[in-house]
Amino acid sequence: METPEQRIKVAVQKTGRLTDHSIDLLERCGLVLTKSKDQLICYGENMPIDLLLVRDDDIPALVGDDVCDLGIVGLNVVEEKRLSMEQNGSKGQFKQIFELEFGHCRLSIAAPDEARYEGHNSLEKTKIATSYVGLLTDFLTKNNIDAEPVYFSGAVEIAPKLGRADFICDLVSTGSTLKANGLSEVETLLQSEAVVIQTLAPLSDEKQALVDKILQRLAGVLRVHDSKYIMLHAPRSALADIRALLPGSEAPTVMPLEGNDDKVAIHAVCRENVFWETLENLKAAGASSLLVLPVEKMLA
Ligand code: PRP
Ligand code: ZN
Q1: Cα distance between the two ends of the chain
Q2: Average pLDDT of 114-137?
Q3: Distance 14 CA to ligand 2 centre (A)
Q4: At what angle do helices 75-87 and 133-142 cross, to 10 degrees?
């Protein structure tokens, strides 16, 4: 059994929009998890990897301070931490590895529905309530706008009603929070999604090997995301046309069909979803016996 220091620790959002997806993603990498009684840790049963369930805003610092080796967190949180550290003259001790294709949202400035918005000028000499002071300050500076960020740790959307700010700058996902509060988006500062970050602290060889393995599996899980395995029969003469119609597939496998010299079987992995239109086009090009299957795992 490994000592606690030899186990990989991954920081994951405790409760929120990234939680279920993050855990699901790691489970699809083959990790079998059990939750501790206090719900703060998920222990890896089949690999020395544990998840720490924490507030998302704390994840960059936990990874930066080397308490955790990896973290799964929104790019919005990562960028905010990076900028606020930069603005304080310190350097982030983590690196961003890759985007995870879930948790999509954006950081936007929103105005009360009744307010007139005529571009950046409308922001001059106003107060903007936000939890993202770093990102907002960066946007204001880059656009030469003289406005004052007002820090709110939560419930940013009520600031205009309270008379504490003219605008807000907050995350928008479905847009229902803005709508419920009579606000409309006027500027988008950042498009965000979940990302993996890794500590810059050097890891032991064993730990680094395990981190590499889990990152490779994550990449594999992401790659199959929309991938489909397609099988069909085609006249030899239509081979070129049919290959051109297969969406996002490299070198398909072409096999002879027993007792039929004019036709071949084609198997291909398509790196994109295969829609009905594609199948109809393939059929029109001469394909028959079309079959589309989901891909579960892929290793390059
Ligand atoms: C964000 C944001 C809004 C809400 C917007 O909070 O502060 O309250 O989501 O989402 P909607 O457009 O789908 O209504 P989040 O749930 O990320 O919590 P946090 O910022 O406190 O982590
Ligand atoms: Zn948060």
Answers
A1: 31
A2: 96
A3: 10
A4: 70
